[in-house]
């Protein structure tokens, strides 16, 4: 691995150099360098969320004295020798070691020392020469969560590498080498999540798609548990994401997102990683072809898991679900039949009725029944009334919970058997750091160790609580960057009420 200074003709074609916005930017860059060196053991030590100190040690191929003396300079790399290499960038020894000390881009000290194979890089007092940038950093806890998040993303896919993270002399994360990706997933997400994942292993036109996707029963309120890799690099790409969501079409409730850990192996010449300095965004040359392959890989996984119902069975089931209801001729019925037999959305309305009228539509209301365990059907003298049972109970729960919150008397329910909820390292820290907030809403839990909590008490109104509800709220706290502000509490309560409401597919009693 020889490090070279690029000439100007190549430099001018490269996206602007990586801008160090926060400690996580440094950790990501150094971590990827360790991967490129062939290291299979990486240790990351940080102090004060990386602002005071970042130290990364690995057992990779290391650098020669000559490489070390040029490595800190701008526009030096071991991956690119000519312009053609920009479109084929891939992921990737003396008895004496070389020690160099650099301050503000200037070489301060250089000497030969004895050391083991690999590289040790230490960054102290980040932003000492650009103090203005330091003012834009968030709290230490938020900056630490960003570091944990990027390390977790790579700990998922790099099952042949052990990665240890230590913060202020306390171990935060320690992933071990394993032969199977699913073991890494269990390490990060826990066995409860892993059991609701489907294996993806698909190849078409020289493109390989492998990894795991969630069953439709396992979803999130946001996209935080989605990890996409191209040629072993964590990336983001709208074309690929859209293809995944298209494959899930009709299988997800509104505003719900699947969990996936997907790796795509493709000829490096078919993608352009030189789009963004952070190299997290890529451009695909044959977008339509790759999009189709991604779509096919997801559908193939669903089919192998018997999640796709045949058209004949679907039609028969849908027919039976609406056959038992007969409506007056002056009522119009619009049916939107989706791919899966469990999801039938029916919009029934009368020309005379208007749901925006400010009057009590439930006066003289007569309940007719329920359609496909999704909609409540009734009528009053003015016509037919159709209610989304989920939205209806959401509103009821919201009003009830807000009243309890304002009165300071939220009714609690003790769980007969405490529930152990396994979290990612980021979720775990968010839960413990906001424990008081959860208690104010009626959720009591204890630290159970190993990135898990023991839930003992929940608000009575959420008696049907599933662990995914608490996970959604924890993720919301992470996305809101850990801030607890009064004006944000009401929005979170609405989310609580929404997740605890009767879902489509539940039979009313």
What would you note in describing this structure?
There is one protein chain. Helices cover 32% and strands 29% of the residues. With 509 residues, the chain is of the alpha+beta class. It has four domains: 4-177, Histidine kinase-like ATPase, C-terminal domain (Heat Shock Protein 90), CATH 3.30.565.10; 183-304, Ribosomal Protein S5, domain 2 (2-Layer Sandwich); 311-391, no CATH class; 396-500, MutL, C-terminal domain, regulatory subdomain (Ribosomal Protein S8, Chain: A, domain 1, 2-Layer Sandwich). β8 (162-167) and β9 (170-175) form a beta hairpin. α5 (140-157) runs antiparallel to α6 (181-189) and α8 packs parallel to α9.
Per-chain topology:
Elements: E1 4-5, H1 8-11, H2 23-36, E2 41-47, E3 53-58, H3 65-71, E4 76-77, E5 96-103, E6 106-114, E7 119-124, H4 131-134, H5 140-157, E8 162-167, E9 170-175, H6 181-189, H7 191-194, E10 197-204, E11 207-214, E12 219-220, E13 226-230, E14 233-234, H8 238-248, E15 257-258, E16 260-265, E17 271-272, E18 283-284, H9 287-304, H10 311-323, E19 331-337, E20 344-350, E21 366-371, E22 375-380, E23 383-388, H11 389-407, E24 412-422, H12 425-433, H13 435-440, E25 444-449, E26 452-459, H14 467-479, H15 486-500
Parallel strand pairs: 2-8, 13-16
Antiparallel strand pairs: 1-4, 2-3, 3-7, 5-6, 8-9, 10-11, 11-16, 12-15, 13-14, 17-18, 19-20, 21-22, 22-23, 24-26, 25-26
